[in-house]
UniProtKB/TrEMBL annotation:
Transmembrane segments: none annotated. CDD domains: AAA. Residues 209-391 form the AAA+ ATPase domain. Gene3D superfamilies: 3.30.230.10, P-loop containing nucleotide triphosphate hydrolases. The keyword Nucleotide-binding applies. Belongs to the Mg-chelatase subunits D/I family. ComM subfamily. This is YifB family Mg chelatase-like AAA ATPase. SUPFAM superfamilies: P-loop containing nucleoside triphosphate hydrolases, Ribosomal protein S5 domain 2-like. PANTHER family: COMPETENCE PROTEIN COMM (PTHR32039:SF7), MAGNESIUM-CHELATASE SUBUNIT CHLI (PTHR32039). Keywords: ATP-binding, Nucleotide-binding.
Length: 509
């Protein structure tokens, strides 16, 4: 007889339906698994055999064939163990034949018959719900699955035996509850940063308009400190945004306990991070740091120290808002709409430009360091600022009266203004940074004095077309923070001041 069990294959964060077909037929004893599985899928045979034996079920000495359909869809991961085991149990009569109808099943088996956690349960649960199925998943992933829908039927057993008892009716399982929101109270506050008013202002503008930002300054100036406090002034994620990120984190296996939070993510990979860690991929397809920063902040400290190919790989996601990873015979795409915050020292020794310091290699020290950054990458960063060293006198000052809460309120108001404006103009953008060039021209037409300033600056600073639109976007955000409907001369003047580094790199190149 042939038993059928539904499961899923992951393509990015999408869960595609897969049918596990199990046939137990007379013939020489054999156990074959077909259907374009990777190594983890093929090893399922050994885990399934051992888990069934441990649960008191021996495999019959017959010809067992498992097919994962559709046969041309690549299948990766260890979550096929459970559907294969359940299919076999149905085929040999250890489960009622119709018990598994209407369920999507995923889970990994341990040799003793317990069910271990797997990645991707949330997208699988959402897919199951969409097909009108219930879900059978590992107990440890139940709280995550419960986020998919309040009506989704979920069985989250710890072992094969527990599931069999449930179907027999001897020990019914309760539905898991959604994981509690992780309310890690926020200890990072902008109030901790003393002095650095210009940098704080730039951070506020970056938060308000969703702009990318690069900070250049000597070690110990507080660049990392400032960046880590950006999430505390960003608006919380909306429920759809939260769900999008949760799907990515689920596929990455980063959602232990199923706890979700509406706080935007802050990812700060080290500069030695490999391409696979940053962009995703590797032996097992996992979203990388830039996908895990979706709807939040990607902080790259010591930007010029990152491998050049890694920095190049950032350009496409910065443009399109998603990242593609090449697999053996297909490509997968993850959403990756993040805000890039970068920090760097002014030169290799870290102190160029400080009073009394002279680099041993003279001006080349700073020039060579800057030349590691490509023009096209810097071109995608709207705000460039210098962060000066803090003095002991600055640190002795009392804490500033204004903290993250006050700044976050202004940021939220500016974001509301942007959303409302783009909606009335019928444009598809949420922040000024996201707006297309035509959208920003419509939304940020400067007044007469502003136009004159822009005209003069375009000539004096040799603004490129992209540079011109970038200045408009930043000026629009500054005007929004100001509560001004028109973009005026002061807004443009401030926006023009955040462009120092492009010119420096152009000189160094
Ligand atoms: N503006 C500041 N206000 C208060 N403390 C600061 C400031 N700048 C630096 N510090 C202190 O110096 C440490 C190093 O700062 P950090 O942000 O790592 O500097 P950077 O990233 O620029 O090298 C911080 O942990 C903090 O204790
Ligand atoms: Mg630092």
């Amino acid at each position: 007889m042939v038993a059928f069990v539904s499961t899923v294959a992951f393509e990015g964060i999408e869960a595609k339906p897969v049918d596990v077909q199990v046939q137990v037929a007379p013939g020489l004893p054999a156990f074959t698994l077909v259907g374009l599985g990777d190594k983890a899928v093929n090893e399922a045979r050994e885990r399934v055999r051992a888990a069934l034996v441990a649960s008191g079920l021996a495999l019959p000495p017959k010809r067992i064939t498992i097919n994962l359909a559709p046969a041309d869809l690549p299948k990766e991961g260890s979550h096929y163990d459970l559907p294969i085991a359940l299919g076999l149990m149905a085929a040999i009569g250890a489960l009622p034949p119709d018990a598994l109808a209407g369920y999507t099943v995923l889970g990994e088996l341990a040799l003793d018959g317990t069910i271990s956690r797997v990645a991707g349960v949330l997208p699988a649960a959402i897919a199951a719900n969409g097909r009108g199925h219930g879900l059978i998943c590992p107990a440890a992933d139940g709280p995550e699955a419960a986020w998919a829908s309040a009506d989704l039927e979920i069985l989250a057993p710890t072992s094969l035996v527990q599931l069999v008892n449930h179907f027999k009716g001897t020990q019914l399982m309760a539905r898991p509850r959604p994981g509690l929101r992780d309310v890690t109270s926020d200890t990072l506050d902008l109030r901790d940063v003393k002095g650095q008013e210009t940098a704080k202002r730039a951070l506020e503008i970056a938060a308000a308009g969703g702009h990318n930002l690069i900070m250049v300054g000597p070690p110990g100036a507080g660049k990392s400190m400032l960046a880590a406090r950006l999430p505390s002034i960003l608006p919380p994620m909306s429920p759809p945004e939260l769900l999008e990120l949760a799907m990515i984190r689920s596929v990455a296996g980063d959602l232990a306990g199923g706890a979700l939070s509406d706080r935007r993510p802050f990812r700060a990979p080290h500069h030695s991070a490999s391409m696979a860690a940053l962009v995703g991929g590797g032996i097992r397809p996992r979203p990388g740091e830039i996908a895990l920063a979706h709807n939040g902040v990607l902080f790259l400290d010591e930007l010029p120290e990152f491998q050049p190919n890694v920095l190049d790989a950032l350009r496409q996601p910065l443009e399109t808002g998603n990242v593609s990873v090449a697999r053996a015979n297909h490509r997968i795409t993850y959403p990756a709409r993040f805000q890039l915050i970068a920090a760097m020292n002014p030169c290799k020794c870290g102190k160029a430009g400080e009073p009394g310091h002279a680099c041993r290699r003279g001006a080349r020290c700073a020039d060579d360091y800057h030349a590691r950054l490509s023009g096209p990458l810097l071109d995608r960063i709207d705000l460039h600022i210098q962060v000066g060293a803090v003095t002991a006198a600055d640190l002795l000052l009392p804490a500033p009266s204004e903290g993250s809460r006050e700044v976050a309120a202004r940021v939220a108001a500016a974001r509301d203004a942007q959303r409302a404006r783009f909606a009335t103009l019928g444009l598809d953008a949420r922040t000024n940074a996201e707006a297309s060039s035509s959208a920003i021209e419509a939304a940020a037409a400067p007044d007469a004095a502003g136009t004159r300033l822009l005209h003069d600056a375009a000539i004096a600073m040799r603004l490129s077309a992209r540079g011109y639109h970038r200045v408009l976007k930043v000026a629009r955000t500054i005007a929004d923070l100001d509560g001004s409907e028109k973009v005026g001369r002061p807004h443009l003047a401030e926006a023009l001041s955040y462009r120092t580094l492009v010119d420096k790199v152009a000189l160094a190149a």
